[in-house]
Amino acid sequence: VYKRQGSRRGKKKTRGEFMAGPQRILICDDQPMIHETLGVYLKNEGFEYCSAMDGQEATDLAKSYKPDLIILDIMMPKKSGVDVCREIRATSRTPIIMLTAKGEEIDRILGLELGADDYIVKPFSAREVVARVKAVLRRFSAAKEEPEKVLRFPGLEINISNYDVRIQGEPVQFTPKEVEILYLLASKPGRVFDREQMLSQVWGYDFFGDTRAVDTQIKRIRQKLPQEGVNWGIRTVYGVGYKFECGE
Question: For 12, phi and psi rounded to 5 degrees?
Answer without folding.
Answer: -75, 135
